[in-house]
Design brief:
4-stranded antiparallel β-sheet, 121 residues, 8-stranded mixed β-sheet
């Protein structure tokens, strides 16, 4: 079982930056996929970015070129650097992990508690 703890959310003006972090803890060998999702009021949760243990990444079109996802496998931590923030980026951001290997098999679809990001002038 893995627990995800997020930090770095807050309020910024349009054009500002934030850096989110998510640290995984528990008894496991490795995590294949780590990613960030977000959910705005009245909308479905959507994928923002994800990264494999190999370093391969993909991004939602709405954030491509502005956000950068990275991970430190030794620290079991994933980061989301958010630049040039827009009001439409306002949402609760959730860390996700899947393909978590442990001695008995795999876990999928583990979520953090969510952290609020607000972009307004």
């Amino acid at each position: 079982q893995v627990q995800l703890v997020e930090s770095g959310g807050g309020s910024v003006q349009p054009g500002g930056s934030l850096r989110l972090s998510c640290a995984a803890s528990g008894n496991f060998f490795s995590i294949n996929f780590m990613g960030w999702y977000r959910q705005a009021p009245g909308k479905q949760r959507e994928l923002v970015a994800r990264i494999m243990s190999s370093g391969h990444t993909n991004y939602a079109d709405s954030v491509k070129g502005r956000f950068t996802i990275s991970r430190d496998n030794a620290k079991n931590t994933v980061y989301l650097q958010m630049n040039s923030l827009k009001p439409e980026d306002t949402a609760v951001y959730y860390c996700n992990a899947d393909g978590i290997s442990y001695s008995g098999g795999y876990q999928y679809g583990i979520w953090g508690q969510g952290t609020q990001v607000t972009v307004s002038s």
